Structures are given as C-alpha cells and as structure tokens.
Amino acid sequence: VAVASAVPGPPAPVVAPPAPPSTVQGGDLASQMVAGKPPRYPVESRRKREQGTVVLSLTLGLDGAVEAIGVSHSSGFRRLDDAALDAVRRWRWKPMMRDGQPVRVRGVVEIPFVLQA
Fold it and tell me: Vertex 19, ends 103 and 62: CA angle to 5°?
C-alpha cells in the first residue's frame, strides 16, 4: 500500500495592510494656508466692546481641509469663539507631506479680535 505524504510548501507571504496615514504636529500652518477669509466681528460683540484672542486646535485632513476643530483657549466671549470656529472651519491649507505622502496635521491657530479706535 502506497502512502502519499504531503510535504508542506513554504508559508504564504503575509501581506500587511498599508499603514494608515500618520498624524504629525504642524509646523508653520500660516505659511501653508491657501484659502481663508478672516472671521466676521460679531455686531453684538462690537457693540459691547468685547475683545480677545481665540486659540483653536485643529486637525487638517489629507486634502488640507479641517477635519476636527475645537477651542483650546477661549477669548472669554462665546460670540467671538463661535465666529472664529465658523471662519476657520472653511479655511484650506496645502496638503502636508511626509516622505511624498499626504499626512494629517494637528496644529493651533490664534484668532485675535481687536477693536480699532
């Protein structure tokens, strides 16, 4: 009686899925900005003479658009914070690259609201 024994071949190569794009800390975001209008100074804030600087933390997507945004330091006035958020959500940056591939970027943007005399 002949018995055939199967000799296992070499294991199949393991193909790792591509790594998700990494997120890097942004350098000078201002130099990479390609489109963005300054926020409108809320009428009620002008009337009440509200001033301050809003610091926003944001994540830019692979295409340079804002993916996530939040207030990391308030101006002290909700209207000014909201005006800054509304404006910066629409801003666009040149996509950030690492090793020839686009990457997500985390950074901060300061928006000063100062009334002129």
Answer: 20
